[in-house]
Amino acid sequence: MDGTILTPDGWVAGRIRYGTHITAIEGTAVEMPAPPFILPGFVDCHIHGGGGADMMEGAAAIAISARLHARHGTTAVCPTSVTAPVAQTEAFLDALAGVMADPPPGAARILGAHLEGPFLNPGKLGAQPPFAVPADAELLRDWARRAPLRIVTFAPEMDPGGALHAALDALGIRAQIGHSLCDYAMARAAFAKGAAATHLFNAMSGIAHRGNGLCGAAFAHAERAEIIPDLIHVEAGAILAARRAIPYLHGVTDATAGAGMPDGPYRLGGQEIVKAEGAMRLPDGTLAGSALTMDVALRNLVEIGLPLAEAARRLSTLPADWLGQTDIGRLAPGAHADLIVLDDALRIDRVVIGGERIDGVS
């Protein structure tokens, strides 16, 4: 494939060769790229659904969602739960394990689960269903035996002794803090242990010149955080401020069943949500995930001033690095051949996952 290729060392005008993995990148380094742009496929670490399907509904819904987002350039995903009773969470994990054992064709590769709850603060649930419980490290270990857990979002005040965070570290699961009313000191301690922040600014104690909470601690101390660049959850100036403060800020969609679909009613973990004017909301108006796809996230980041190369890396390389995966999220020999081709308007022309072209690209 010929074009201007985004490599870990910068842009190369030339040719990328691949089978299931990238075998070679040939060409000349350039400062100013020209279309077609060849980028690493997007890696979405926080995604609840898409294509009309909510991933809590089971294996078929996970496959539908993964196919929808693949057509929008996302080549790897962490299907994300919502706060739910134990039996529902276990059904989600069992379904996820089944999908990973028999990957659906034409879909983003499934990396493992992101559990968003149930160890959240019941006073800061946002659109999460009301099933929050205190942290339970033994329950976590049981869930980790059901399916690969890659990320767990929890409120640190629900884990006062730190047993859950310690269990996450021992199991190699990435800890993220969110849906929390914790104070600055508690959040700072979690960041000192390596935690990241979940959907920065949203569903967390805030940032201020006095009385800082989780968000303020993230600006001062976090190395990593995820953010939703739909320009609805977080306005442009706040994204730019976070980019200056947090070195490895990466984008996620927090997409729900309405992603890629027309306006109307959908489901999120058993709750009714409504898509209208580009947003997903509960009937009372509370934001409930998003309708975002990663190709739109890329164009949004470029629109607010990020160079294309940086915007792409914040949606691919940095989330892959957070998961400890150097075989995705970058175009380099030996990495999976997961790539996207964009035209001069940054619209997706082609998506390739594991060397196979995806049909029905939007």
Automatic annotation (TrEMBL):
Keywords: Carbohydrate metabolism, Hydrolase, Metal-binding. GO terms for biological process: N-acetylglucosamine catabolic process. The keyword DNA damage does not apply. This is N-acetylglucosamine-6-phosphate deacetylase. Binds 1 divalent metal cation per subunit. Pfam families: Amidohydro_1. InterPro entries: Amidohydro-rel, GlcNAc_6-P_deAcase, Metal-dep_hydrolase_composite, Metal_Hydrolase. Its cofactor is a divalent metal cation. Belongs to the metallo-dependent hydrolases superfamily. NagA family. Residues 37-356 form the Amidohydrolase-related domain. Zn(2+) binds at residues 116, 179, 199. The keyword Hydrolase applies. One of its GO terms (molecular function) is N-acetylglucosamine-6-phosphate deacetylase activity. Substrate binds at residues 127, 202-203, 210, 233, 287-289. Gene3D superfamilies: Metal-dependent hydrolases, Urease, subunit C, domain 1. The active site is at 254 (proton donor/acceptor).
